[in-house]
Amino acid sequence: MTTAKLFIHGVPDSPAIWRPLLAALDLRDTPVAVPALPGFTAPLPQAFPATKDSYADWAVGQAETLFAAHGPIDIVGHDWGALIAQRVAMLRPDLIRSWAISNAVIDPDYRGHRLARIWNTPVLGELFMALSKPAKLAAGLAAQGMPRDIAEEEAVQWAMKDKRRAILKLYRSAKGLSFEHDWARDIDKLPATGALIWGAGDPYVELSVGQRFAANTGTPLTVIEGAGHWAIAERPEEVAVALKAFWSAV
């Protein structure tokens, strides 16, 4: 039986970020779920707190649904989706055949990038969101390597007030991006069947973070040269080769 795949996107993205990789993977005969994080493409569900733990619980629910229909799944995450995917694997290893993540990792020593610190700061984060315009976001994402059509699509989503609210809540629940006191304490609960894929020139989560995690845990690391934070969309063919090789060896 073909193993079902669950893809979890990050911030400030939407499921659109997976399009190039999904095309390169050609998963036409595989059950695939590519959900949007709550509040990222539609209004925040009522009473959804948009904390890191609530997003992890939501992702566990997505994994449970796929598992019920198809058995143990392969979960793939990028950016915040990588952190959430690792948390799902920690909490519910029974649901997971493998986990693979790109350009973010639960690391006790990582302290977040500049934007994370801004979003974590009351008033300053709200001011940033109020002044951040969709057109400027699209230009910035494209300049950092995201395909222009996807950058423009993500910018349309950025115009949603609930998305910006959700991002602030998410980052503040993680104290910027600090996991040393909670999620990072469960790293030993991660199933051994994991893989890291990293854009070498990531300005947000430097390659050294992935290298440190790989060295500390023995998790294999594939470095995508000439790519940045959005390697999954910049170099989808190379990422697809790495994923297929990993899945075939699980």
Short description:
The protein is of the alpha/beta class. It has a single domain (5-110, 179-249), classed as Alpha/Beta hydrolase fold, catalytic domain (Rossmann fold). The chain is built from eleven helices and six strands.
Explained architecture:
- The protein has 250 residues and is of the alpha/beta class.
- The protein has a six-stranded parallel beta sheet with strand order 2-1-3-4-5-6, with helices on both faces.
- Strand 1, helix 1 and strand 2 form a beta-alpha-beta unit.
- The longest helix has 19 residues.
- 43% of the residues are buried.
Task: Classify the secondary structure makeup into a structural class.
Answer: alpha/beta
Order of helices and strands: EHEHEHEHHHHHEHEHH
User: Can you tell me the number of structural domains?
Assistant: 1
Termini Cα gap:
14 Å
Main beta-sheet strand count, sense and barrel state? 6 strands, parallel
CATH architecture: 3-Layer(aba) Sandwich
Q: Tell me the strand order in the biggest sheet.
A: 2-1-3-4-5-6
Low-confidence stretches are none
